[in-house]
Write a structure and sequence with these properties.
Blueprint (H helix, E strand, L loop, with lengths): L5 E17 L35 H4 L20 E8 L5 E5 L1 H6 L3 E5 L5 E7 L10 E2 L4 E4 L12 E8 L10 E12 L13 E5 L16 E5 L8 E8 L9 E10 L12 E3 L3 E5 L14 E11 L9 E4 L10 E3 L10 H4 L16 E8 L11 E5 L1 E2 L1
């Protein structure tokens, strides 16, 4: 990605914020990279089913696919008529891959719409991934990972996992992959404990070369980029696992779109960027942020990752971030707790201070880093004072 400027935000330890980012001009585009819209994508037919129909409880509302939806590998002696990394979109906004109908059916996919060359838009899904004796392997780009259709109760103590196998020699891939993007279309598991630690339910990733934090709670609309060595020279298995504890009072469910990004793609995120935004305006949220009453614990501990923003050539390289509107009683658009360097009798009250009243020196425990940033909301005496760490509330 030559000649591309990138802003990077570092999120350290415990954070919970929801801010709107823009490049300080009025032109607006989509909120995140569209890695699934090549120029030759076509949609002609109606898709009979959606992978899910309810944004909060997916396991109750999606219907059974028309074909077994288990992504499997086939012998390399078989040449499936896939067009590797040629994405398509169904009329119901499902993301798939172009293939002939026979290959789509062989891999357990479902035809929904059409592509060029007489091929179909093949929608692939994997579910029922909680049986250790029957492991599921994903080898196809743009595969949905769904929670079990029967649901996962609050007393369950188990785990569900899938393996994403990256190997350029697989006929359904055919070229080197350097990143995998996870789109959390829907994701709800147990909340963190009062110390902000995901001690009951967890989502973890193993096998990526970049650091992937453990998360829990509600993460609909979030995404992650997983870095791997080029799969043409270093085949990699990524393990995605959701683990459940017995003490959670939450119903669990998820729908995660797993997309593979070739090494020569213009959509690769910069190295070490867990999240990457190319839009000139949009909203950025920490994991598990949600507009709920202020008494709820939304912060996640042990978060340490970078959020990157691609700037537009010829546009002023300034990133403006403002709190978004919240509606729930006591909810905070930006809430990053901090510990004072010198404890005082009112240290507890200190963590509730407005972000404009705290300098970088006060943010010594949990904070958001914005390199070369400054806070235009400071009191007059320190107006526009330079900051690189942000904490507190607003």
């Amino acid at each position: 990605m030559s000649h591309v400027n990138v802003f990077i935000l570092g999120l350290f330890l415990v954070i919970s914020q929801h801010v709107r980012a823009s490049t300080c001009d009025s032109e607006s585009v989509e909120d995140s990279p569209n890695i699934n819209a090549p120029e030759n994508s076509m949609v002609l037919e109606d898709s009979p089913r959606l992978p899910t129909n309810n944004p909060w409880l997916p396991y109750y509302y999606y219907t059974t696919p028309m074909a077994p939806q288990f992504a499997t590998s086939v012998s390399t002696k078989v040449t499936p008529a896939f067009v590797p990394f040629t994405s398509c979109t169904s009329p119901n906004k499902e993301t798939g891959i172009c293939a002939d109908s026979i290959a789509c059916n062989r891999y357990g996919g479902r035809a929904s719409g059409s592509c060029l060359g007489g091929r179909v838009c093949c929608i692939n899904m994997v579910s029922n991934t909680c049986d250790e004796s029957d492991p599921k392997i994903i080898t196809i780009d743009n595969t949905y990972w769904l929670s079990p259709s029967m649901g996962i109760g609050s007393s369950s103590t188990s785990s569900c996992s899938v393996t994403v196998k990256l190997n350029a020699k697989l006929p359904e891939q055919g070229k080197a992959v350097c990143q995998v993007r996870l789109n959390f279309i829907m994701f709800s598991i147990g909340q963190p404990d009062p110390e902000s630690v995901c001690s009951t339910d967890t989502f973890e990733v193993l096998g990526a070369s970049n650091r992937i934090p453990t998360i829990c709670g509600d993460n609909e609309g979030q995404h992650m980029y997983l870095n791997v060595p080029p799969s043409s020279t270093s085949p990699t298995d990524l393990q995605l696992t959701v683990t459940f504890g017995a003490n959670s009072n939450s119903l669990r469910g998820w729908n995660v779109l797993i997309s593979m990004i070739p090494c020569d793609s213009a959509n690769l995120a910069p190295p070490d960027c867990l999240q990457y935004f190319i839009a000139r305006t949009g909203m950025v949220k920490s994991f598990n942020w949600r507009d709920v009453a202020g008494t709820a614990t939304r912060q996640l501990a042990n978060q340490d990752y970078s959020i990157c923003f691609r700037t537009t050539p010829g546009v002023t390289k300034t990133l403006c971030m403002t709190p978004c509107t919240v509606t729930a009683t006591g909810s905070k658009a930006f809430s990053v707790s901090t510990a004072m360097t010198t404890p005082t009798a009112d240290a507890v009250a200190a963590v509730e201070r407005d972000v404009s009243q705290l300098s970088s020196l006060n943010c010594n425990n949990d904070f958001l880093i914005i390199p070369e940033g400054y806070n235009i909301g400071n009191p007059t005496a320190v107006l526009n004072m330079a900051f690189d760490r942000y904490c507190g509330h607003c």
